[in-house]
Write a structure and sequence with these properties.
The structure is a homodimer. Helix content of chain A is 28%, strand content 24%. The longest helix of chain A has 23 residues. The first copy, chain A, has three domains: 92 residues, Nucleic acid-binding proteins (OB fold (Dihydrolipoamide Acetyltransferase, E2P), Beta Barrel), CATH 2.40.50.140; 260 residues, Bira Bifunctional Protein, Domain 2 (BirA Bifunctional Protein, domain 2, 2-Layer Sandwich); 126 residues, Gyrase A, domain 2 (2-Layer Sandwich), CATH 3.30.1360.30. Chain A is an alpha+beta fold. Chain A is built from 15 helices and 23 strands. In chain A, the strands form five sheets. An eight-stranded mixed β-sheet of chain A has the order 6-9-10-22-21-20-17-11, with helices on both faces. In chain A, helix 4 crosses helix 6 and helix 4 packs across helix 14. Chains A and B meet through strand 1, helix 3, helix 4, strand 6 and strand 7 of A and strand 1, helix 3, helix 4, strand 6 and strand 7 of B. Strand 23 of chain A pairs antiparallel with strand 23 of chain B.
Chain lengths: 583, 583
């Protein structure tokens, strides 16, 4: 037997027990006559004690050890003379009587500590060593726990976990599909699923009224920061439900997770905000509600003072940054630069300081009197000491820019506490968005999303105004999940495809089997999918989802540890009837 | 709200409640003045009652309904005048007051009944309808339950469920890899995992000493009956363990599953049989122990009687089929034909009937006296009334053929009861097998399998005789799981690769990262993987794993419902820098 205990469990009450431990050498302190070794495994660290006087031969063996050696020791649990209250095992140590080296280790390329000296690149290359760090382990273990808690909640609610296939058919969003050449069917390809969407709808038609699955999905996108080509989705679907049935059940899931994982009790219902309202109030469809700082519409208030920028603007909005009236010229200049970065893309920023003495100082004093500025303060609920920030332009773009500025000011004011959580639902998304260039309509959610019932009739005449039975769960500015009630009517689905620019043949080729399935008694249904990686990262306090994925790929989609993707032999290409065409 | 109850839960105690139900129309019985409809969902069937006299307008609506329509009804639970004790809801019916059609249905292409009129091809094409059949549902629901039970057991035993990547690197068994062309890295490919083998070993090196995962694996094989290109594996690995630690823990899992799912208590340890013994006794490395009928070695017993076939044979073996001495000439002739089929490939079969009167009648009476045949009976423990069946030839081939014959006789004697389970471990597999043509050694399990400790020294001199620390869990003739203790020593692993015919470069290119990982303190480790599809099929009493997969592919690897694999556009091929080369 390699061990009787792990390295995290021995306590004062075990003193005098004979034990066997195995683990990694975390640290060696050679004090000459005595040597202390910290032995580590995923459960903790236990201190080993070797005394030269008691057993000099054994003691000398420790000299050959190094960091990350795997060793097995036998010995007696003894009370420490100087205890370490910061360690769960800090009351005891093992007085070692036998030492076996199970595996040697080269000097690792970075230190296996929370504060490591290894940069991201080298830690990714040696991910198996990075995974030994307690900080990384914490995320992986949390992920496991969250997966089990999610399953428990859903199983308790009569959901069935059902696996859907990975080798499927390329879909209209096909350009982002990863494909898999078939060896047996020359020139043909499977595709990897971007989501199990179609299959979960088929399961509803098949009568499995509560389905879920934690499953990998795949998307071949040009990599953006913190995207992975493969990611994990908590995919759920229900039949015989209306929107609120779904919101209530999955709000229950979120509350269960907050309670079990973060020990936070959300007793009140989550706020539900319509998409249009969220855009107007927060300039975002995933607002961070850990702080207020709503956007105020100043379009009417600021007009008529010969300030051409505002007079010509479709929309002028403002936020009020509490207590920042003291910002220096340098600070406001930097803020202007910040909104002018391409990520925000604003032309500029107007500000008005509401001084503690009740006077105002603005960057447009030429055009606006103190009385005018007082109106700005009233409209934004500013108090003396606050800083009012205004942006203008086309409405949508300005709102989005103000939304970004709001988050930045929230950061500066330290209003975005990692330990605070503000969940909400965004509802009533638009069904379509129009491509500004081509005029083509696209589905905001996906082509199976149902319009709101009372708006069905607009589908032929005024589709842009239709709202969808779609919803997102948002926490702290992150979209954690999203879904919709689906269309379960063949005719309506056909109209949708038409509006989305599919020819009849295209719709049939891509979704014929689904359309066909609708003919045989489709129940009303809807669902939701959660981004599991993002949710775990949020609960783990991680910036990046890479932190909570055991073997992530880098931003270029490469696994630099195993060196993939890589070349395959000519023989295999030939078997697949493929040739590489270099440009 | 679409429903207050499902179609399986209303009972006598609900009589007089007002309820709302939704579901599929299973059956309509129109008795003129009264109509009865069976309403179905995945929870059961509830009878609906429409009375013309009470509400003729409502009653007339039922005339427009058809099989598989989705309807919603409101009404009162009433006690049935004639109860149906075979149905859980058989005491009650719903006296309907309101009927809404939620979805119409075309006449389904086959009946949604356990005994359906649809052949396999059409049921696969309309799998979403096939999935409505109670028989199919049972398998899918069982699968969900088994997955949850497996997780519970492993989580209780401190295992962590950790996801490993799907977009990985092609391996030496590469010819069977499905590959995924990379768009971003021209001419390069990911591969889909045939198993997470390498990643679970890296997780052990990373310190996650108890790992598991229910995950999809992929193998691009020429399809054999009941193989799927994608299949689900229960993948497990542990550190600081020896073989018996693993066998004991996973025997515990198997017992847990037998108890929870089949309500069978295996209180005794599972039998453990060495591979060599299994081959000699049962002619199989996955013997069906629901019945005995061991193979007897008659090589010495039958020699020296001038029967050239036996005199020249390396091996002569026999089984005794109890009570079949009465087989007619026609029956034995058919049996001879059976062993001559290419699947068995035997030249023939010698038999001896041990008649009830104590005399013998054999197909080789010319060469063997009654006394000779009595010796056969003694060697095979045959009693009067039994049939002794002998085969001869090279030892291995003959044992395998006798193994097949044993199963066939077990079937004929009805000794293979679906409700009986005989689990066992096969241990001490050979480490290598030699390719008869090329002389090249192959790993029986895989290249990371550890030789048995006391046989390490044979690796250079006599590798063929080395046994491996490998094991299979076998139930009723099915290999349910298999695994091994792994090599955790770089030097030994390098020797293995050499014997397996890898050049140093090949080994480095394919497994460099793993070999490198071994340098940084690899713990002793081992694991096991279970074929989840097969296990569920076994517990479900299904012949084929297709029965317990929601959306299976056919034997040619096609999903005929969605029509995959299929062609992709030229544009997408170009993006992938690929061209199709038709032969």
């Amino acid at each position: 037997m390699y061990r009787t205990h792990n390295c995290g469990e021995l306590r004062q009450s075990d003193v005098n027990s004979e034990v066997t431990l195995s683990g990694w050498v975390q640290k060696i302190r050679d004090l000459g006559a005595m040597t202390f070794i910290d032995l580590r495994d995923r459960y903790g660290i236990t201190q080993l004690f070797f005394n030269k006087e008691d057993n000099s031969e054994l003691h000398s063996q420790t000299e050959k050890l190094g960091r990350e050696f795997v060793i097995q020791v036998k010995g007696k649990v003894t009370e420490r003379s100087s205890k370490n209250p910061d360690m769960p095992t800090g009351d005891i140590e093992i007085t070692v009587s036998e030492l076996n080296v199970l595996s040697k280790s080269d000097v690792p390329p970075f230190t296996i500590e929370d504060e490591t000296d290894g940069g991201e690149e080298i830690r990714m290359k040696y991910r198996y060593l990075d995974l030994r760090r307690a900080k990384v382990q914490k995320g992986i273990i949390l992920r496991n726990r969250m997966a089990q808690e999610i399953r428990q909640y859903l199983i308790k609610n009569d959901f069935l976990e059902i696996e859907t296939p990975f080798l499927i058919k390329s879909t209209p969003e096909g350009a982002r599909d990863f494909v898999v050449p078939s060896r047996m069917a020359e020139g043909k390809f499977y595709a990897l699923p971007q989501s199990p969407q179609v299959f979960k709808q088929l399961l509803m038609i098949g009568g499995y009224d509560k389905y879920f699955q934690l499953t990998k999905c795949f998307r071949d996108e040009d990599f953006r920061s913190d995207r992975q080509p493969e990611f994990t989705q908590i995919d759920c679907e229900m039949s015989f439900v209306e929107r609120d049935d779904i919101l209530n059940l999955f709000e229950g899931l979120a509350k269960h997770m907050f309670k079990e994982i973060k020990n936070i009790d959300f007793t009140e219902p989550f706020v539900r905000i319509a998409y249009d309202d969220a855009m107007e109030m927060y300039g975002s469809d995933r607002p961070d509600l850990r702080f207020d700082m709503k956007i105020s519409d100043l379009t009417e208030v600021v007009k008529g003072n010969n300030f051409k920028v505002f007079d010509d603007a479709e929309f002028v909005g403002a936020i009020c940054a509490e207590g920042l009236a003291g910002y220096s010229r340098k600070q406001t200049d930097k803020l202007i630069k910040w909104v002018q970065r391409p990520q925000i893309g604003a032309k500029g920023l107007v500000f008005a300081k509401y001084n503690e003495d009740g006077t105002f100082k603005s960057s447009v004093d030429k055009f606006y009197s103190q009385e005018d500025l007082k109106k700005w303060a009233d409209a934004t609920n500013a108090k003396p000491g606050d800083l009012i920030l205004l942006m203008s332009g086309s409405k949508r773009k300005t709102l989005l820019a103000l939304g970004e500025l709001r988050l930045e000011m929230g950061n500066r004011l330290e209003l975005r506490d990692d330990n605070k959580f503000a969940p909400l639902w965004i509802v009533d998304f638009p069904l379509f968005e129009k491509d500004e260039e081509t005029g083509q309509m696209h589905a905001v959610h996906h082509p199976f999303t149902s319009p709101k019932k009372d708006q069905f009739h607009l589908i032929e005449t005024n589709p842009e105004n239709i709202k969808a039975e779609a919803y997102d769960l948002v926490v702290n500015g992150n979209e954690i999940g999203g879904g919709s009630i689906r269309i379960h009517d063949t005719e309506l689905q056909e109209k949708m495809f038409k509006i989305l620019g599919f020819t009849e043949e295209e719709a049939k080729a891509q979704f014929g089997f689904l359309m066909n399935a609708f003919k045989y008694g489709a129940p009303p249904h809807g669902g939701i999918a959660f981004g599991f990686d993002r949710w775990v990262a949020l609960f783990n306090g991680s910036e990046s989802i890479r932190d909570v994925i055991a073997f992530p790929k880098n931003n270029a989609g490469r696994d630099i540890m195993i060196d993939a993707p890589s070349e395959i032999d000519a023989e295999q290409l030939k078997d697949l009837s493929l040739a590489i065409v270099r440009e």
